[in-house]
Amino acid sequence: MLQLHPVVSDFIMSKTSWVRIEEILDGKKTENIVNLRGWIYRTRSSGNIVFAVIRDATGILQATVKKGNLSDEEFEDAKKALVESSIELKGDVKEDKRAPGGYELRVTRFNVVQFAEPFPIVEDQSPEFLLDQRHLWIRSQKLTSVLKIRSTVVGAIHKFFRERGYFEFDAPVLQPNQCEGGSTLFEVKYYDKKTYLAQTWQLYAEAAVFSLEKIYNMGPTFRAEKSKTSRHLSEFWMAEMEAAWMDLYDITEVAKDEVKFILNEVLKNNKNDLGVLGRDIKKLQHIADSKFPTITYTKALEILNEKENMNVEWGKDLRTIEENKLLNHFDTPVVVTNYPLEVMAFYKPKDPKDPKTALCFDMIAPEEYGEIVGGSQRSIDIEYMKRRLKETGESIENYEWYFDLRKYGSVPHSGYGLGVERLVSWICSLDNIKDAIPFPRTMLRFRP
Ligand code: ATP
Ligand code: MN
Asked: Which-ligand-closest: CA of 374?
């Protein structure tokens, strides 16, 4: 069935200059003759006319193909070409209020680069089918917009830290230790031994702040999450920072600035994409312009009790439902500090001013998107950390190198991790975190 065009077209051979759809939609090419290449997004024909909507990486545009305006052979090709066929066009750009985007191309050349087979994805298919067809579904307008926004987010993270004097620092992905609890580790056969995939970059980052002082990284992170939620992936990207001489307060302020910086970059670069996704842009702009509050865990329980009539026992971690209810009382992300010490990871230190709590924080997003950032000051108390690790059945010998960091010029230091997909989900108002990453991996899926 596969019909490749017999020869490379004269378009390609002639080193034509190509316009992009966004230039046409910007009105820069009106009344010009242009060359355009891309894929057929939608097409219908009746008698002597074909209306094809063309897409390229920058947008979609209506192309009108009328018999008589081009060779008969090319007109027949235009009629025959199915959705997703790759094409090269020449035509006149005209303003047309009825066309999507307000412009159309009146086609005078229509060259099919490859006639597509019938595309397996049609309207109203189930999320599972679309995940099976992910390699094709990533061409959809929705995922194209999400991936463009994701690209802005990633670029913004690098820009934010580099402009502020942080060095990019890479940690190993294969690690012999846990950091966030043994139950979510992915074990990897390592020659005749075993090791694990990184749950975080943190322990290695703590080694590096004694030379580089301020560092950041963004890398793949692996957690064998056994619960199925719309907020957990098995492989996700975490953007982390770690800094010497900074305390809990300092890093909460960095995290707020970072999230606002990212929002502003997206608002500057991706208005169209936010529109495609139906995102309320005014709401995002308001958040980017607002101050994010900081409250304690204890205060959060008071709010839940007084305003939501919810009684959470002091000492229990906040669940999703409680985070969502709490955020009913804010219209920006909120930083919650001082969670109960006992439920926290071994490296989170006691707050000397409130010893039942840890010097840690989560940033919780509004609109039911939950935790987007988690971080803490780091403990410098070797005996305390040893005790906590022993309680969870860890062998202390594996951590001796980490305790060394507290013996040679230790200083207060702190850091946090921001979940890239959590943030992208919220910015794009996605129903499920799986759409925030090109090829999602979850407990039930690692294909394609
Ligand atoms: P949660 O309670 O939601 O599972 P966590 O407390 O395990 O989060 P941290 O260990 O603090 O998360 O990790 C830092 C950040 O990484 C989180 O704030 C979140 O944005 C992101 N994150 C953590 N686990 C996942 C996951 N399985 N999938 C996607 N992002 C995640
Ligand atoms: Mn978790």
From this structure: 1
- Rounded distance between C-alpha atoms, residue 166 and residue 160, angstroms: 9
Domain with CATH 3.30.930.10 in the chain: 130-436
Q: Which atom of ligand 1 is nearest to the CA of 363?
A: 18
Strand intervals (E) in 255-324:
294-296
Nearest ligand (C-alpha, residue 345): 1
pLDDT at 256: 98
Q: Identify the DSSP state of 101.
A: G
Task: Give me the long-range contacts of 391-398 (CB less than 8 A, separation at least 24).
Answer: 392/181, 392/182, 392/346, 393/182, 394/178, 394/182, 398/176, 398/177
Ligand 1 atom nearest 416 alpha carbon = 14
Give the burial string for 103-140 (b: 16+ CB within 10 Å, else e): bbbbbbbbbbbebbeeeeeeeeeeeeebbbebeebeee
> Tell me, what DSSP letter sits at residue 173?
S
Cα distance between residue 340 and residue 344, in whole Å: 7
| Atom 19 (ligand 1) nearest CA | 419
How far is residue 143's CA from residue 133's CA, in Å, rounded to a whole number? 13
Residue 281 in 3-state DSSP? helix
State the distance from the centre of ligand 2 to the C-alpha of 181, rounded, in angstroms: 9
Index of the ligand 1 atom closest to the CA of residue 199? 10
State the distance from the centre of ligand 1 to the C-alpha of 419, rounded, in angstroms.
6
pTM over 0.90: yes
Q: How far is the CA of 165 from the centre of ligand 2 (A)?
A: 30
Locate CATH 2.40.50.140 in the chain: 9-114
Tokens representing residue 144 in the block: 């194209």
Spatial separation of the C-alpha atoms in residues 354 and 405, rounded to whole Å: 26
Cβ distance 110 to 89 under 8 Å?
Answer: yes
pLDDT in tens, 184-218: 999 999 999 999 999 999 999 999 999 999 999 99
Q: Which CATH architecture has domain 130-436?
A: 2-Layer Sandwich (3.30)
Which residue's CA is minimally distant from atom 3 of ligand 1? 371
Distance 279 CA to ligand 2 centre (A): 27
Tell me the fold of 9-114.
OB fold (Dihydrolipoamide Acetyltransferase, E2P) (2.40.50)
The closest residue, in CA terms, to atom 12 on ligand 1 is 374
Residue 6 has pLDDT above 60, yes or no: no
Q: What is the residue with the minimal CA distance to atom 31 of ligand 1?
A: 419
CA of 422 to the centre of ligand 2 (A): 12
Q: How far apart are CA 98 and CA 101, in angstroms?
A: 9
